[in-house]
Specification:
Largest interface: A-B, 32 and 41 residues
Helix content of chain B: 40-55%
Number of helices of chain B: 3
Shape of chain A: elongated
Number of strands of chain A: 26
Helix content of chain A: 25-40%
Number of strands of chain B: 6
Structural class of chain A: alpha+beta
Shape of chain B: elongated
Strand content of chain B: 15-25%
Oligomer: heterodimer
Radius of gyration of chain B: 26 Å
Order of helices and strands of chain B: HHEEEEEEH
Radius of gyration of chain A: 34 Å
Chain lengths: 642, 161
C-alpha cells in the first residue's frame, strides 16, 4: 500500500490519434473527466499561434485553417519512430506541418521551432492534467496512459517520456485493447484462457487485437488493422454523395462554397449518428446556396439502407485485418469468447452486424465506445493505487425493503440497489379510530402488493393511546448495517413506546433468487399497478366514508335532520361498494365522488356557520372532498424528506 | 499479530480517508453541477433551435426585390425579430465577428485569405455564433485574412478588391 501514501488520484488517459479522453476512479467507480470546455473528449491537436501562444484541443482545431503550418495533429503517428520509417515518410507527404530529421528520430516544426513528438504529446497531456486538476480540485501527478498494442518499446518509452515532460509520473503504459477489456471487467472472468477480440474503429484508425486472458493478465496474441481508416472516411463518403445528389438536382457544384460545405458536413455527421437509432432521417438545408435564379434548397431523405450502401466497402475493409489477426493468433472465429467494441463508429448497426458476421458473436456494447479505453486505464490506475474496494467491499441491497400498509400494499422504505450501511425512517399512522396497536409486517421484493413479496418477519407495537384514525404517529426505522443485518424499529411518538425486530437473512439471497424476484416483479408490473390503483381508490373511498360519518356525528346539533339522513343514506350506499370484494377502480372512484358530492354542500354550510364560532375540528368540517394526494390512514406521512 | 493489526488499521484508515474525500468531492461537484445544469440545459435547447434561426436569417436575405415591401414579408421579418428578442431575453448574445481579431475561443475559421499584416482579422461571417456570458453555445464560422488591427475596417476591404 506504499503507493497510496500519496492521496492524489492516478488518472487514466487514452492518448488517441485524433481524440484523447481521461477518467478517474471515484468512490470505486470509473468516471470520465470532462475538459475545461465541458467536453468528454479532447482533440489531440496542438498549435502555436502568431502571438506565440500555445493552443491545445478544440481551440487549436478551430484555428488550424489560419495556421496550418503551425498546427500539429495526429502526432501519435510519429511518436517513437525513426525518420526513415515508411510511416513517417508517408506522413511527411500528408501532413501540412513540417516533419524534420533529428538524429535518427523526427521533430515537427511549429512557429519556427522544432519539437519532438514527445514534447507535442506532452502539451496535450499538460492540458489534460490541468483540466483534471480543476475537475478534481486536487493536484494530479500520476497517470496510466494507453498505447496501441502494436507499439514497440521505443514508442512506449516515448509515450512515457511525454508524460514525464507534462509533469506526470506514468505508473504504467497499458495496451488500448487491454484497457477496453478491463472496462468490461473481463479480467474477472473465471474461465481459463478466455480469448477476447477488441475491434477498435476510431476517428482515423482501425485496430483489431486478439487477447488471451490467463491468471487475470491479458496477453496480446495478435494485432492488425488499417492506419488510415476511420469515422472521417465515413463522413466523407456521405458528404460526397450529398454533393453529387445536389448537383444532379440543381446542377450546382457545392465543393467551392465554404458555408454550404460546412453545413453539409455538419448535417452528414448528424445524419450518420441519427441513423444508428432510426431508419430514415430528413436532411433539410434550406437556402443552401443561390444562383441567378434565386435561392436553392436541399431536401433529402437519407435511409439507413442508403447509408450502409455508401459506406459498405469501408466496413468490409475491416474484415481482412480481422481474419489475419485470427490467423496470426492461430485461432478460429469459434474460439473467441468475447468481442469488445471501441471507437465511435462501432455504434453503427452495420458495423456491429459485420463484426457479428466475422466472429459469430454479438459484440459487447455496454460502455460508451469513445470512453471505454480511458475507463479501462482509470480502472488500472485504481488497481495500482490499491483502491478502497480491495479492502472495504461495499454491498448493496439486492431487493427493496418495506412494510405492508393499508389494503395489502407494500410501501418501500429502502429501494433496491441502495448501498449499505444505510437507514431510513418514515412516519405512519393508524387505519381506524382508537386502534390500540399496529402490526409491522417487514417485506422484501419489488411487487406492489405485499402478497407477491417475501415476508421477512412481523411484530406488533401496542399500547397506542386512543385517537381518531390518522392521528397517532408511528415512526418506522429501517437500519441495515455493513453486514447486511436489518433492524426494524417502530416507535409510537405519542408514548415513546417502541418495538423492534432484527432480521439477519435479508442479504443472503442467491443471485438466482434476486433475479427471479426482479423478473417476476417486471412481469407483473402492469397487473400489480392496476391492483394497487384499485386499492388506492378503495382507500380514498373509505376515507370519504369515515369523514362523512364523522361530519354528521361531530356536528349533530348543527346538521339538519334531512341532511343527516341524506349523508347516512349516501354512506350506506358507499359502504356497500367499499365492502364489495370485486369492485373495480372506477366503481370505487365513482362511489367516492358521489359521496363527496353529497357532503360538500353540507360541509360548506357548516363552514359558513362555523365562521361565527370556532369549529372544534376545523380540518374535518372544512374538508370538501377526499383528495387522492392526502395521506391516507396507514399511509406515509414523510417527515424525513423535508 | 499485533503488527498485522496496526497495518490493517493504517490501511483501513487510509481507505476511509480516501472514501471520505471522494464523497466530499462528489458532493461538491454535485452541487456545482446542479448550479450549472440550468445553463447547460438552456444552451442545449438553444443550440438545437439555432439552425432554425439561421435559416430564417438566410430566407430574409433572399427576399426577391419586388417583394421587399410586401406586407406578408414584413410580417415574416417581424417573426424573426421576435425570435431574436426571445433569445436575447434568455441571455444569449450573438458573437461579434467582422473586423475583429480572429479568436479561436469564439470563432471557427474555415478559410484563410491572402493578405498582408501582422494580425489575423475576421473578414466574413459564414454562420453566426452565440454565447451566454462567456459560455459559447456555438462558435461563429468565419473567414480570416491577415491585416493590421489599427487600420480601419473599410481600408481592409479596399485592400481586398
Amino acid at each position: 500500500m506504499k503507493e497510496s501514501s500519496n492521496m492524489g488520484k492516478i488518472i487514466g488517459i487514452d492518448l488517441g490519434t485524433t481524440n484523447s479522453a481521461m477518467a478517474v476512479m471515484q468512490a470505486g467507480k470509473p468516471e470520465i473527466i470532462a475538459n475545461s470546455e465541458g467536453a468528454r473528449t479532447t482533440p489531440s491537436v496542438v498549435a502555436i499561434n502568431k502571438n506565440s501562444e500555445r493552443l491545445v484541443g478544440q481551440v487549436a482545431r478551430r484555428q488550424s485553417v489560419t495556421n496550418g503550418q503551425n498546427t500539429v495533429f495526429e502526432v501519435k503517428r510519429l511518436i517513437g519512430r525513426n525518420f526513415d520509417d515508411k510511416e513517417v515518410q508517408k506522413d511527411i507527404k500528408l501532413m501540412p506541418y513540417a516533419i524534420v530529421k533529428s538524429g535518427n528520430g523526427v521533430k515537427v516544426t511549429m512557429a519556427g521551432k522544432d519539437y519532438s513528438p514527445e514534447e507535442v504529446s506532452a502539451m496535450i497531456l499538460s492540458k489534460l492534467k490541468a483540466d483534471a486538476e480543476s475537475f478534481l480540485g486536487e493536484p494530479v501527478t500520476e497517470a496510466v496512459i494507453t498505447v496501441p498494442a502494436y507499439f514497440n518499446d521505443a514508442q512506449r518509452q516515448a509515450t512515457k517520456d511525454a508524460g514525464k515532460i507534462a509533469g506526470l509520473e506514468v505508473k504504467r503504459i497499458i495496451n488500448e485493447p487491454t484497457a477496453a477489456a478491463l472496462a468490461y471487467g473481463l479480467d474477472k472472468n473465471d474461465k481459463k484462457d478466455e480469448k477476447i477480440v477488441v475491434y477498435d474503429l476510431g476517428g482515423g484508425t482501425f485496430d483489431v487485437s486478439i487477447l488471451e486472458l490467463g491468471d487475470g493478465v491479458f496477453e496480446v496474441k495478435s494485432t492488425n488493422g488499417d492506419t488510415h481508416l476511420g469515422g472521417a472516411d465515413f463522413d466523407r463518403a456521405i458528404v460526397n454523395y450529398l454533393i453529387a445528389q445536389f448537383k444532379t438536382e440543381q446542377g450546382i457544384d457545392l465543393t467551392g462554397d465554404k458555408t454550404a460545405m460546412q453545413r453539409l458536413r455538419d448535417e452528414a455527421e448528424k445524419a450518420k449518428i441519427e441513423l444508428s437509432t432510426t431508419n430514415e432521417v430528413d436532411i433539410n438545408l434550406p437556402f443552401l446556396t443561390a444562383d441567378a435564379n434565386g435561392p436553392k434548397h436541399f431536401e433529402y431523405k437519407l435511409t439507413r439502407a442508403k447509408l450502409e450502401e455508401l459506406v459498405g466497402d469501408l466496413i468490409t475493409k475491416t474484415k481482412e485485418p480481422c481474419e489475419k489477426a485470427l490467423k496470426d493468433a492461430g485461432l478460429k472465429a469459434t474460439d473467441i469468447n468475447s468481442v469488445v467494441m471501441v471507437g465511435g463508429m462501432t455504434r453503427m448497426p452495420a458495423v456491429q452486424a459485420e463484426v457479428k458476421k466475422i466472429f459469430g458473436k454479438d459484440p459487447m456494447m455496454g460502455v460508451n465506445p469513445d470512453e471505454v479505453v480511458a475507463v479501462g486505464a482509470a480502472i488500472q490506475g485504481g488497481v495500482l493505487q490499491g483502491d478502497v474496494k480491495d479492502v472495504l467491499l461495499l454491498d448493496v441491497t439486492p431487493l427493496s425493503l418495506g412494510i405492508e400498509t393499508m389494503g395489502g400494499v407494500m410501501t418501500k422504505l429502502i429501494e433496491r440497489n441502495t448501498t449499505v450501511p444505510t437507514s431510513k425512517s418514515e412516519v405512519f399512522s393508524t387505519a381506524a379510530d382508537n386502534q390500540p396497536q399496529v402490526e409491522i409486517h417487514v417485506l422484501q421484493g419489488e411487487r406492489e402488493m405485499s402478497e407477491g413479496n417475501k415476508s421477512l418477519g412481523r411484530f406488533v407495537l401496542d399500547g397506542i393511546a386512543p385517537a381518531p384514525r390518522g392521528v397517532p404517529q408511528v415512526e418506522v426505522t429501517f437500519n441495515i448495517d455493513a453486514n447486511g443485518i436489518l433492524n426494524v424499529t417502530a416507535k409510537d411518538k405519542g408514548t415513546s413506546k417502541e418495538q423492534s425486530i432484527t432480521i439477519s437473512g435479508s442479504g443472503n439471497l442467491s443471485k438466482d433468487d434476486v433475479e427471479k424476484m426482479t423478473k417476476e416483479a417486471e412481469a407483473h408490473a402492469d397487473e400489480d399497478k392496476k391492483k394497487r390503483q384499485v386499492i388506492d381508490a378503495k382507500n380514498v373511498l373509505e376515507t370519504a366514508i369515515y369523514q362523512a360519518t364523522k361530519l354528521v356525528t361531530d356536528n349533530k346539533d348543527k346538521v339538519s335532520e334531512d341532511d343527516t339522513k341524506l349523508v347516512n343514506d349516501a354512506v350506506e350506499v358507499a359502504k356497500k361498494v367499499a365492502d364489495k370484494t370485486d369492485a373495480t377502480q372506477e366503481e370505487f372512484e365513482k362511489a367516492g365522488k358521489d359521496l363527496s358530492d353529497i357532503i360538500m354542500p353540507i360541509g360548506s354550510k357548516l363552514y359558513e356557520a362555523g365562521k361565527t364560532e370556532a369549529t372544534p375540528e376545523g380540518e374535518t368540517t372544512s374538508e370538501d372532498e377526499p383528495k387522492t394526494d392526502e395521506p391516507i390512514e396507514g399511509e406515509v406521512v414523510d417527515e424525513d424528506k423535508k | 499479530m499485533v503488527d498485522n493489526r496496526v497495518d490493517e488499521v493504517a490501511v483501513l484508515t487510509e481507505a476511509l480517508k480516501r472514501e471520505r474525500a471522494d464523497s466530499e468531492n462528489l458532493r461538491r461537484r454535485h452541487e456545482q453541477d446542479i448550479a450549472n445544469i440550468r445553463n447547460y440545459v438552456k444552451a442545449d435547447v438553444i443550440r438545437d433551435l439555432l439552425p432554425v434561426i439561421d435559416n430564417f436569417e438566410r430566407s430574409v436575405k433572399h427576399i426577391p426585390e419586388d417583394l421587399k415591401d410586401n406586407d406578408y414579408i414584413m410580417g415574416i421579418k417581424s417573426i424573426l425579430n421576435q425570435f431574436e428578442k426571445v433569445i436575447r431575453d434568455l441571455g444569449v448574445e450573438k458573437i461579434e465577428t467582422i473586423g475583429l481579431p480572429f479568436n479561436p475561443s469564439f470563432h471557427e475559421a474555415v478559410a484563410m485569405e491572402e493578405g498582408e499584416g501582422d494580425h489575423e482579422i475576421v473578414v466574413e461571417e459564414l454562420q453566426s455564433g452565440y454565447k451566454i456570458g462567456d459560455q459559447v453555445i456555438r462558435h461563429a464560422i468565419v473567414k480570416v485574412k491577415p491585416g493590421n488591427i489599427n487600420e480601419p475596417e473599410d481600408k481592409l476591404n479596399e485592400g481586398e478588391q
